[in-house]
Amino acid sequence: MPPSSILMMRASRNRLAFSSQISSTSHSLIQTIQRCPHCLDIIPLGESLEKHIAAVFECREDENHAIRVGRQKRASERERERERERERKQREDIERWREQERTRKERRQRKRARAAARSSWTDEPSSSGSESCSESTAKRHRTTIEEVVHEDAPYIPSFPGPSTMCGLTPPASNPSSASLGSAAERRRVTVEEVEDEDAPYIFDSPGPSLTRPLTPPSSNPSSAHHDSTIEQDRTRVGKAVDKGAPHVGIPGPSTPGPSTLPVSGPSSPVIRSTSEHLDEAQSEPRPSAASQPHGPCLRSRHRRRLLRRWRGLYVENFPDSLAGAPISSERRSEPDYEAYIKSTGSMADPKNFEVAELLMTSGMTDEAKDRHLKSILYRGNTPWPTARCLLNDTDKLPHGPEWTLDEIEVVNARRPRLQYMVRRNSLELLQELFANRLFGPEFAYAPVKYWTTGRKRERVWSDMRSARWWWEEQEKLQMAGKGAATIAPIILATDETHLSVMSGGQTAYPVYMAVGNLVKHWRRKPSKRGMVLLGFLPTDSFEDIVDDDERRRLKADLVHRCMEEMLAPLKEVWEEGVEMWCPDGRLRRVFPRMAAYMADWPEQNLQCCTTTGTCPICSTKGKGRGDLSQTADLRDRDETLGALRAYFICNHVGELKMLGLKPVWPWWGDLPDVDLHKNIAPDILHQLYQGIFKSHLVRWLKFLVGEGVLDDRFAAMPRAEGMTHFPKGISAVKQWTGRESKEMLKQILPAVLGDLRPEEAQLARSVIDFIFIAHSASMTDTDLATLEHELDTFHKFKDVLIAKGFYQSEARFDRIPKLHALSHYVEMIRWLGTPDGYSTETSEHLHIEFAKIPWRASNKVRPLPQMLTYIQRQEAIRIHRTYMDRYLGHDREPEEEVEEPTTEIRPINVAVGYKPQEESFGDAEIEGDDEQQEWVDMEEGEGVEGDWGVVEPVTYPNPHRHLAINPTKHDLRLKDISSKYEAPNLLSALKDFLVRRCNIPEYNVMLSPNHRVPVWHRLYLHHRPLPFAPFEPPRRDVIRASAPVLGPGGRVRKEGVWDTALYLERPNQSRSNAEDCEKHGIQRYRAGRVRAIFSLPGHVRYMYPGQLAYVEVFRPFEAVPASPYGRMHSTGLELDARGRRRVIVIPVTEIVLACHLVPKFNQLDPDLRLDPHTDLLSISRHFWFNHYYNHYLFLLIQYWRRRRPTWSERLLALRR
After folding, report:
1. Separation of alpha carbons 752 and 449, rounded Å
2. What is the maximum alpha-carbon separation in the chain?
3. Euclidean distance between the first and final Cα of the chain, in Å?
């Protein structure tokens, strides 16, 4: 070691410097000949130490790279060698088994020959008679064995031999040996039959030498009941063996031993008990291949697994049953709500608390609260004479973890300054989330895999527990020997927001935290409190720093040091975990892990320490980033931290610039095994709705069609329930939020499709389809492939924007970073789950509750402490309300809002004479729910029912229909309906319905225009989640049919609304023909405009007692979309022989879906004025069927396009 210089490093997060000190005892001769230990170059005396240190690091990086490459090469060679060794052993095992089979066959033949000779000696001397007797005796003997086995144990197909499993054909055997072999196999299955009758189940052991204990690990909560279960199981198995099956050795509880069975196959069954909890009954870890005497082929084929049938999917649990298991059998009881309520003093009275809740949550100032309490209405009726007394009692209520105000001194700025950071203890906040009993049924503790079939051919990706991240993290804990480990996936969200738009407005920088254990539809609801406030980061802008780079570095470093301090409590328990009480009342050892980070694009770069012009996920360069063909490696934690360490040691910025990194040490750098580059969650709000759609696609379409044209078409767009109408167009929208983007996305393609060239239509459609698919709650591998295909389609046709002159070159696409982010969506979905669980809409909404409203409640002078007090009081009121509801026994759950009480409308089959086809399967219950689950025990390579020839029927909607209990109009004449509801042919259509559909003789139909009927204005359709998309929320459609409301002077005060809907197409007769039954998908239905919803007059209501709808009919949909580039179906007005609109009366039970029809604007009269009052559904003759109206309808259309009816289904339809 050269003694010439001693390296001293002063380590600081804000600045790192080196100082060299020359030793007084060093010898000049030694200094002149010293060499670098890495590059072996001679170091001269006058050489700069910093320059040499930089060279040393470069040499070290090259050396480490060479070492890594060599290790990878050697590892691959060792893996190939192991594979060859496994194949060799496998061949030897197969040959050994064949030799054993041949030996057994020869032994059986010799044994039968001796038995035949022995019988010939003892029987009569007649050779013919003895031979016949011998044959009959042997035959009777074999028949007896088969009959006994068949009578005592139902036959189950035996496991295949090793030659069959390895893809080889076993040697042929004679009939007698085959008969004995089948009997032996049936004996073996007799023991396995115990699994189907009682609790224990049997799985194949890798060999008879393997010893397996009968008792589960002690951590299993049901271990106390296993001893008696095992004794009963041993009795049952003994009985089965006595009835004709070979004896199976069952070791006792105190001396566990192998369970062997003398059969011809290479493996033998082992019996063990299962857990009493279905969620914890998972297969134990498989033994290594070294302990298997018959090779890895047998192990892979004879492994058994337990799948769970849930919501139409097959659920595969984590193989270690200890994953997410409790560490104690103790169960925490519910809190003593009565004792708590009594301890709250004046707040214990529900009436007093209702007053306090009203005053504290209505947004009143303290002065307004004081005026209310001193008024005549409140005086003497409440225990609080002033607002100060109310606030004091509120401060005594329990609340969440305490707030801590930290002072941060920035020493590297131009002038010293103090910054303030507000935070809660992150570990206590995590414990509070885990202890919330309201999360019980919606909380997960272990990862799973969802499959569409039992053969695990196509995987389903949904929430975080079904993604790869949780599964791999659980495997890491399992390999580390952590035992019963429960992972707490930490989800963080940050976003700086403005508190005021006035000059000198302040900003807040909140940090939110959630856990991936809670299902995503609860995390998205602010009322469920699944995402909580962790703290506020300082927002110093460092305006006094002149240098831009230094100012940005200080701002980023301030954020990272504060984040590091916020998460410090979690770092302390990162390795060993911490015991926590969980929502189900059980105690678990929880290991916090950083799972996902929710932020927009600039915030992602800030948290990943990457520069603004680069990607936080991959190392792609700025040039060519907009081209999908350019590939780049994903960023790696070790590479990022290594480059930052090199910079802090030698101040070498070359590698930082090459990787696009900021000179700031990340807050996650000291957290073990955290790679934030991989944990960046997809952001559908800022990247898709507000990014690609609002900032780019709308501008492209305005350029291609015209801004004024697009505004006029949006203004004249036909209305539909649940869809926002833009009466002034989209250019007049000032506050463009995510909601406006979603509503415009639904309408923009049919508005411009007729004016676009084919390549322009495919460009727009691919973007819109990508956004709709990415918004799904669950995706299969097929959906992910479709997502990639739509992105490829966009890049294929994006050159049309250059050809039209919107962009000058392809380099312009490189300046759209959010376009590049779409290329990472498929991998991010596989890693973290679908994007709907990580939308920044949640954090944007929480800004209102935790930042904007508390700031308005302060006096704007040092508002941060006042904001914290306000937040804590609101939290205390909310917690007390929850406890009081529990104590009083009525937990308040928000119900679906409807305008008035409704009653369900069911199909009436007696009068009409038919039953809708959809009832056979469309209205069937979803297979399995959270409480009722079907467990499927199966072997790898085997199919489950539905895999071989059994195809699930095509899904068609069949909603629950509801109408208001009281009609909107109780007594309205038929002629008034004809005039006010624009239904001129109502009387004739109603008579036609009774004659043709209800088989009523025409002379018995006595209807007059003066007859009065009840009328409804709304029909509600409640749809269950689709069977092929079980994670989607239920859908409620509303069909409106209301007449205009006139004000004084006859002016229209409220316009009439008549929605369009899909109804089941049937001939105007009692039964449909075979051709109608063959129709598939959208062709089964027709669109109609509902003009009136009513029932028959009282004197003829016996003919059809249900409700009816007067509908204006549109033409049938074509089999193939009319626009192959826009993939939209079309329809048009249907006219009768007189050239009038065709109208019919149908039962409301035939209406299945609300729909949206958009006129083909390019085929309208050019002189027609388009404004919000233009009724285009009556003027236009050609329409697009807008399947982007809602996500439920979009998924149905996509499903019908993929799922074509099979030949067997077509034949079955013809037989009906």
Report:
1. 42
2. 128
3. 93
Q: Which pairs from 1199-1204 meet CB under 8 Å and 24+ separation?
A: 1199/955, 1199/1026, 1199/1028, 1200/954, 1200/1080, 1200/1081, 1200/1082, 1201/1081, 1202/782, 1203/954, 1203/955, 1204/1080
Cα 306 to Cα 202, 277, 283, 1054, distances in angstroms: 11, 13, 7, 60
Task: Please state, in angstroms and rounded to a whole number, the distance separating the CA atoms of residues 450 and 385.
Answer: 59
Contact 813, 822 (CB under 8 A): no
**By CB neighbour count within 10 A (0-12 exposed, 13-18 middle, 19+ buried), where does 144 fall?**
exposed
pLDDT digits (tens, 9 = 90+) for 556-609: 999 999 999 999 999 999 999 999 999 999 999 999 999 999 999 999 999 999
pLDDT for residue 412: 63
Packing angle, helices 825-832 and 781-797, rounded to 10? 160
The span from the CA of 1027 to the CA of 846, in Å, is 33
> How far apart (Å, rounded) are the C-alpha atoms in residues 715 and 729?
5
Alpha carbon distance 823, 826 (integer Å): 7
Tokens representing 406?
Answer: 């930290």
| Euclidean distance between CA atoms 534 and 551, whole angstroms | 26
- Of residues 702, 754, 747, 700, the one with CA closest to residue 722: 747
> Which residues, other chains included, contact 630 with Cβ-Cβ below 8 Å and sequence gap of 6+?
620, 621, 624
Give the span between the Cα atoms of 1106 and 1094, in whole angstroms. 9
Cα separation, 925 vs 988, in Å, equals 40
Q: Are 443 and 487 in contact (CB under 8 A)?
A: no
Q: Which two tokens stand for residue 710?
A: 């697009």
CA distance 1109 to 1144: 8
- In the DSSP assignment, the letter for residue 1052 is E
pTM: 0.74
Rounded mean pLDDT, 51-65: 66
E-strand spans in 770-897?
A: 779-780
**The amino acid at 249:** G
Most confident of 8-17, 893-902, 1134-1143: 1134-1143
Among 816, 839, 598, CA closest to 742: 839
C-alpha torsion sign, points 624, 625, 631, 635: positive
d(CA 374, CA 364): 15
3-class DSSP state for residue 559?
Answer: helix
Q: How far apart are CA 228 and CA 226, in angstroms?
A: 6
Cα(1023)–Cα(1035) distance, integer angstroms: 5
Instruction: Tell me the per-residue pLDDT of 211-257, one tens digit each, with 9 for 90 and over.
Output: 333 333 333 333 334 344 333 433 333 333 333 333 333 333 333 33
Ramachandran bin of 487, using left for φ above 0, alpha for ψ from -120 to 50, beta for the remaining angles: beta
Helix H or strand E segment including 89: helix 49-122
pLDDT score of 49: 54
Checking if the pLDDT of 402 tops 70, the result is yes
Instruction: List the structure tokens of 928.
Output: 């399995």
Q: Residue 465's pLDDT is what?
A: 95
For 663, list phi and psi in degrees, rounded to 5: -80, 60
The CA distances from residue 1023 to 312, 917, 922, 923, 1034, in Å, are 17, 17, 10, 9, 6
| 197 vs 156: CA distance, rounded Å | 13
CB atoms near residue 1086 (< 10 Å): 22
CB 449 within 8 A of CB 830: no
Helices 707-715 and 738-752, interaxial angle, to 10°?
Answer: 100
- Which DSSP string do the residues of 304-351 spell out, in sequence order? EEEEEEETTEEEEE-S-TTTT--S-S-BPPPP-HHHHHHTTGGGGSHH
Rounded to whole angstroms, the Cα distance separating 378 from 387 reads 12
| H or E, element range at 489 | strand 486-494
Q: Which two tokens stand for residue 590?
A: 């929880």
Helix (H) or strand (E) holding 187: helix 175-192
